[in-house]
Structures are given as C-alpha cells and as structure tokens.
Amino acid sequence: MALAPDVASSTDPATLTEDGAHVNAPGLQYFVFALFFIFGGITSLNDVILPKLKELFTLNYTEAMLVQFCFFTAYLMIGIPGAELVKRIGYMRGAVAGLLIMMAGCLLFIPASQTATYGIFLGALFILASGVVIVQVVTNPLISLLGPQKTVHSRLTFAQAFNSLGTTIFPRVGSALILGGLAGVSAAELSGSELAAYRTAESAAIVSTYLGLAAALAVIALVVWINRNKLPHDAAAMQGTALTSFTRYLIGIVPIALGGWLVIRGNEIPGIILLIVGPAIWLWGNSLLGRARFSYGAACIFLYVGAEVAIGSLIVNYLMQESVLGLTERAAGDMIFLYWGGALVGRIIGSLVLRYASPGLVLTGVALGAIALVLFSTSTTGTAAGYSLLAVGLMNSIMFPTIFSLACEKLGMKAADGSGIINIAIFGGAVIPLLTGMLADASGSLGTALILPIICYAIIAGFGIFARKPAVA
Q: Measured by CB atoms within 10 angstroms of the end CB, which terminus of the chain is less buried, N or C?
C-alpha cells in the first residue's frame, strides 16, 4: 500500500537541513530503500496471515479483521508520539528505535505460537505496526537528506517503488511459507489437546517467517546505528509546532484505548465511535479542517486505505469460494501478489498519465473503474469473478498520492499539519475492513460485504470531480 507522508512533511525537503546542503552518505540511502521495501511487504503480509489465523482459531470475518484493526490502529495511536520521539532523538536514532520495536513485534510471534493465543498474535501485530509508523515518520525526510535538492522528488518516487515491490513480493513468499497445512485436517474438526497441538504446529510457519524478518531488521538497524552520527542536526526540520498539545493527546488517547478494548471484546460499533472521538479531540479547532478541499481529501484517504485493505484482506477467502475459483488456501494466497502487483504497474502507468491529464479527473476515472470491477466480480462467477476483483489493485495504484496532492495543494506553511492529519487518516485501514467483516458475517456473503468498499470508491470519485480545479490559496 501507499506510504503516509511523515508528520514533519516532506513537501519542502529543501528545509531539511539548516543550511540547505545535503548529507554525503551515499551508502545509507540503499538501506533506506530496504526500509521502504520491508515495511511495505510487512503490511501486505497481513493479507496472508489473516486467513491463516481465521482457520486456526475458527474465527468469523469480524474477528479475523481484528488483524487489520490492531495493525492500523497503531497509525492512530503512535503517529503523534512517534513524531515527538524523532524530534527528540533525531532521524537516525529514531529509525533505529522504530526498527527495534518492529523486531520486538516479530519476536512476540514466538510466545503467540507457543501458547496458541489469538490475542497475543494481535498484540504482536500492534507492536510491529507501531515500529512501522515510527520508521515511516523518518523515511521520507531521511531519503530527502541523502542527495541533492534538485533530485529529491525522483529519489522519493524511486523509494516508493521499493514499497510497491515489497507489497508485491512478500505475499507470494508469505503464502508459500505460511498458508496450506496438514492435508485433510482443519481446526474446525479438532478439539481439546489435539486442537491446541494443531494450532501450535501450524502457527510455527508464521513464526519462522517473522523471525526471518526480525533478522533482516536487525541488520538494517545495525547499519543505521553505525551511521547515526552522519546527520548531526538531522531533526532540525521537525522542530515546528506539534499537531496537538500533550494534554490533548492524553485526553484523546483515553476514548481510543477504551474503544479499542470494546472492539476486541466484540462491541464493534460503540468501540469505533469512541475511536473516532480521540482524533476529534486532538484536531478540534484546527483551521485545516475548515477547508472543504482538505477535509474532504483527508476523509478520502481514510476511505481509500480502508477499501484497499478490506479487499486485500478478503481476497484469499473470496477466491476459495466454489462460485469463484474454488482454490485451496495456498493457491489463493499465491494470487494476492496480482492484487498488489497491479498497484505497482498502475503507479508506473499513472505517473505518465498524470503528466498530461487532470489529476482530479484521473482519480475519478480510476475510482469508477474500481467500482465497475467490484460490481462485475460480485455479479458473475468463475475466472471472471476472481480476476476482476484482483484487477482492483490496478485502479488503487494512483489514488493515495493523487488524493494527498489534491488535498494538500497550496497549504503553504500548514503543509506539515496537513501531512500529520493525513497520517492519522490511515486509521481507515482499521475501521473499514472491520465493518466489511461485520457485513460479511451479517449477510453470509462476501459479495454483499464488498458494497462498503464500493461506497468508499464512490465518495473518492466525487472528490476527484470536486478537486479537479486548482486550489485557491
């Protein structure tokens, strides 16, 4: 999926150092590219681990979507303190802190597997995502520092390509390592000690995958730590006004924590309402929300991330249906890469199209294309149904950067605040998939549940038309 801009803002990378000069550390940028690749891949691995945990713990769709809920709730809870941490200790040490937290999340899969406890898996995913959020606060400005100002946009675009590459490769590898299982055996057929042994044995594949990731993260953290003193004033660009006060943050985190607890306990609707109260407290009175163009765009980021994650989360189970492709869990998992690979191809094509066409109208076009593909998929069967849903990834490709650029156009000195608010809006990846899972359980149909992503895309299409003309400063 697309990366959030950091809360410091990368819209004006020339200000990232006090004198405007770049840092001469050419080898370091390759490890930053590796960061983009790894946390893009880690995010897409949720689409593989979700159906696995659903089967192991005999979950319904709402319960299974807690995987995405716990992962993306980290964007809501950790984004602001993560930015403050980086301000205090700098980009390089901040990156190391984020990497170590990611490692801790990966290592927590060990007790989760040994105890066969779904709650510990969810906790591990939240901690892993918390590290991802902190690293994302660092990466855009850090890659901006590591080269001349005149090539900063091309470097950022190139780095984003590594993120897309990660989301394409990781699901294919993860499917081979994680999905599948003992032939002719499922958790639903077992009980007692046999069920506990089955869950422990089957989740061992998940542990092996995330231990490999932990090892890779350790290597990158070591390299960044060795180079930590190459950016002596590396957080100078982040010393601006905070998005919200510390007091407001503490007040807002209370309903968020309570809401998260309610969701996990099965009280989804009141929990989601409380979760939304938190950022409302943080951002109350922010002048940017009075700008219709920006507030509409931020809402569309929430909806876009939610729709993209919801579809990706359901792909394996959708393709396993007899009315679609009737695949095994492993075979369906192998096809996730087509969804994310479509986004990679679409970004390449989209970067060319957007040079000559109105970004707003292009956004409307791809949103309507996504709606058409989902409707076609749910109204037909067989190969056409399966591949048309996978093709939605192609439509998703340019939505995030286009919505972001249209929403933040001519924000001027408010660009950093705009970037921070949009970072919070990525929390849509927690809410929309959860609601989609609830629809699937209530209706007994994955096709019916996809109505919610369709609504999301329809609102996004409207934003493209709304923002088709240049913004007024």
A: C
What is the C-alpha to C-alpha distance for residues 186 and 298, in angstroms, rounded to an integer? Answer: 42
Higher confidence at residue 305 or residue 470? 305
Q: Which of 323, 441, 322, 444 is nearest to 378 (CA)?
A: 323
Kindly report whether the global pTM for this prediction surpasses the value 0.85.
yes
Classify 262 as helix, strand or coil.
Answer: helix
> Which residue reads 């934003």 in tokens?
463
Nearest to 319 by CA among 342, 302, 335: 335
C-alpha closest to that of 162 among 8, 38, 7:
38
CB-CB contact of 127 with 104 (8 Å): yes
Q: Can you list the alpha helix ranges (DSSP code H) found in 284-327? A: 292-320
Q: Which are the contacts of 191, defined by CB distance < 8 A and separation ≥ 6?
A: none
Measured CA to CA, the distance from residue 313 to residue 431 in angstroms comes to 13
Entry field: residues in the chain: 473
For CA atoms 61, 253, 82, 222, give the dihedral sign: negative
What number of CA atoms fall less than 13 Å from residue 423's CA on the CB side? Answer: 32
SS3 444: coil
* 3-state percent helix, strand, coil for the chain, nearest multiple of 5: 80, 0, 20
Mean pLDDT, range 344-352, rounded to an integer:
86
Tell me the two tokens of residue 438: 């609830």
Query: Backbone phi, then psi, for 396, in 5-degree steps?
Result: -70, -20
The Cβ of residue 462 has, within 10 Å, a number of other Cβ atoms equal to 15
Q: What six digits make up the tokens of 9?
A: 């803002």
The string of pLDDT tens digits covering residues 390-419 is 999 999 988 988 998 899 888 877 776 787
Please choose, from the candidates 298, 468, 407, the residue with its C-alpha nearest in 3D space to the C-alpha of residue 11: 407
